[in-house]
Design brief:
Order of helices and strands: EEEEEEEEH
Number of helices: 1
Low-confidence stretches: none
Helix content: under 10%
Largest sheet: 5 strands, antiparallel
């Protein structure tokens, strides 16, 4: 069997509160703090509950998620303290034969959560341009 063509994959099953309506950003980060662009990531609607990442580079990654509720006030999209949060419980080592399935639970922010230091609306804008 030829493994050279095999791509690593991580499938994330997103569990968000029933009342949540909005966008969910999910990304692979080298550290447990979202202070830079993710190695790879995506944004999904609250209707979607599964995200798969493939062609992941070798390395160690944390899966972090932030959920932005729909709002009629544009300012709300830039108040990161109110974003719902989710993360993997552990750091994952990714190599050529990695195939992971992970559950990410979206929840209210807790006082000890690290700050979200990246501009999520900007990431969405950049994704739309490509």
């Amino acid at each position: 069997m030829d493994l050279q063509g095999k791509n690593p994959s991580i499938t994330c099953h997103i569990k968000s509160p029933n009342h949540f309506k909005g966008l969910i950003f999910i990304g692979l980060f080298p550290r447990p703090i979202p202070d830079q662009k993710p190695i790879m990531g995506t944004a999904i609607s609250h209707h979607q509950n599964v995200v798969s990442f493939t062609e992941i580079p070798d390395g160690s990654f944390y899966i972090l998620a932030a959920a932005l509720p729909w709002s009629l006030n544009p300012k709300d999209y830039f108040l990161a303290d109110s974003y719902l949060r989710g993360r993997s419980d552990a750091c994952f080592q990714v190599s050529r034969d990695t195939e992971l399935k992970v559950i990410i639970k979206i929840r209210e922010p807790l006082p000890y959560d690290p700050p979200i230091l990246i501009n999520l609306p900007l990431l969405l804008f950049e994704k739309e341009k490509t």
